[in-house]
Design goal:
By secondary structure, the protein is α+β, with helices and mostly antiparallel strands. Helix content is about 40%, strand content about 20%. The strands form four sheets. Strands 3, 4, 5, 6, 7 and 8 form a six-stranded antiparallel sheet that branches. A six-stranded mixed sheet has the order 10-11-12-15-16-19, with helices on both faces. Strands 1, 13, 14, 17 and 18 form a five-stranded antiparallel sheet that branches. The radius of gyration is 27 Å and the shape is flat.
Length: about 475
């Protein structure tokens, strides 16, 4: 009976070529060791036959003709997408795009662009220093109307970016519209462009480091930023602010190595999957690049994955003060499995745990000091998205459902009160009895209240350290 079902199933699929290749792996089983295994095997063959029946019916009777490739890709996407929000199928194009993002470099012009809604053209936000676009004289605000003679109107931003990227040392002609000039053509030779995931600057005697995502270039950028800030500020540097707000994450190994920049020893993160043997522990190596200087890490609801690994490690080791709002809560690890010329699948294979053994899946990293951004529009914002709100998100195995709901309700009440208190405090702090701040400080407070609080905290910690040193001496 089993062989008959199997033969019937395979006979149906063999005419579909690629579909047979995908499903053949699923229909290869060892000899069943028990009646239960035999029943499961029979059920699997019946389900595969069901899939074949649906595939054939859609292929032949759907109102419009659809290629076998599109149907199969859609089936795979549905299978992986049903697992959790972060497992999905990457066709060849998406797989190549993902490799560009994680590699942090590509062949291109060196411009940050956006879609201009009024004109439908591509607007240059900023040319990146020392790139072909910068050397060609492109400026912020320029509009790109044509790429190699083809109008950009009607193209999406991603389509236009794809046309501008290409092999290194190949030429491209773009038509520029600038307010003070008639449209003109610029011929540019593509070069290797590195995505700048790390930016830094001196805020007085405090070093500010912003990380937008975790690519292959991130740790190198962090080390370079720390070195440059030490040189710029000098020996009396008061500390560092590591800004991970709205950082969606990236590569696990980069999260580990970035944490290692600020840690001298101890565990950074551990990962565990279904197979106990696959568990891994990542340790810090000897040496803190910042020499133990005070550190404040900024996080918010947009800080996810690799950002949470860094924040959790520095928090558990009491190496940094975490300031801001609760992070996103993505405590899972995805593995990229290439499928030859057909792309790849991204599948959740492990959960990660902070050094204290806590899983932050659907819970997030709770800051040591809760500071909202204190803008009126945030107070009125309804439910803020997090990992726990995503469809099919993995649950945190340390919580039961009842406790999770109770904590969520308490959080909403607490956050609302915190927002109102902070807003009131800001209003009170701008009264007539307060000295009038200079325009730079005033602007910074209004634009980025969380960063202002972080800078004030670091200066207080530096003063405290100096006081203790003086007492000891």
């Amino acid at each position: 009976m089993i062989n008959q079902i199997k033969t019937k199933c395979i006979r149906r699929f063999v005419t579909f070529g690629q579909l047979f290749i995908i499903l053949s792996a699923l229909t290869t089983f060892s000899v069943p060791a028990s009646t239960t295994n035999l029943k499961n095997q029979n059920d699997t063959y019946q389900l595969l036959e069901l899939f074949g029946n649906v595939f054939e019916r859609v292929r032949n009777d759907y109102v419009e003709e659809i290629s076998d490739e599109d149907l199969i890709e859609a089936a795979i996407e549905g299978m992986l997408g049903h697992l959790d929000p972060h497992s999905n199928f990457l066709n060849k194009k998406k797989f190549n795009e993902m490799k560009v993002q994680t590699r942090g470099e590509f062949g291109g012009l060196g411009i940050e662009v956006t879609l201009d809604q009024d004109s439908g053209m591509i607007k240059i936000v900023s040319p990146i220093d020392d790139t072909p676009a910068f050397r060609a004289g492109l400026k912020a605000g320029d509009l790109i109307s044509h790429i190699d003679g083809t109008p950009v109107r009607g193209l999406s931003l991603s389509q236009a970016v794809e046309k501008m990227r290409g092999r290194i040392n190949t030429d491209i002609k773009i038509t520029i519209r600038r307010k003070t000039k008639k449209p003109f053509d610029v011929k540019i030779t593509r070069a290797r462009i590195r995505i700048q995931s790390v930016r830094s600057r001196a805020e007085g005697k405090v070093g500010y480091i912003r990380v937008t995502n975790f690519t292959e270039q991130t740790t190198r950028g962090i080390k370079k930023a720390v070195k440059e800030l030490k040189r710029t500020i000098g020996a009396d540097i008061e500390g560092y602010v590591l800004d991970l707000r709205n950082n969606p994450g990236g590569l696990l190994d980069q999260a580990v190595s970035v944490s290692d920049v600020f840690l001298d020893q101890g565990e950074i993160v551990s990962t565990r999957g279904r197979d106990i043997k696959s568990a891994q522990r990542f340790q810090a190596t000897l040496g803190d690049d910042t020499s133990g200087s005070p550190l404040v890490v900024l996080i918010n609801g947009g800080s996810a994955s690799a950002s949470e690994i860094v924040a959790g490690a520095l928090q558990d080791h009491r190496r940094a003060i975490i300031l801001g709002t609760k992070s996103f809560g993505k405590g899972s690890v995805q593995t990229i499995i290439p499928l030859g010329q057909n792309g790849a699948i991204k599948m959740t294979t492990q959960r990660y745990y902070t050094p204290s053994g806590q899983s932050i899946q659907a819970k997030g990293i709770s800051p040591d000091i809760i500071v909202q951004q204190a803008k009126p529009e945030i107070i009125d914002r309804p439910n803020i998205r997090s990992e726990a709100s995503l469809r099919n998100s993995l649950r945190n195995e340390s919580d039961d459902e009842g406790n999770s709901k109770k904590e969520e309700n308490q959080k909403k009440t607490k956050d609302k009160k915190s927002l109102e208190v902070i807003k009131d405090n800001r209003d009170e702090g701008q009264g007539a009895s307060e000295p009038k701040p200079n325009s730079t400080t005033r602007t910074l407070k209004l634009q980025d209240y969380q960063l202002t609080r972080a800078l004030e905290l670091l200066r207080s910690l530096s003063l405290l350290q100096q006081t203790r040193a003086g007492i000891n001496n």
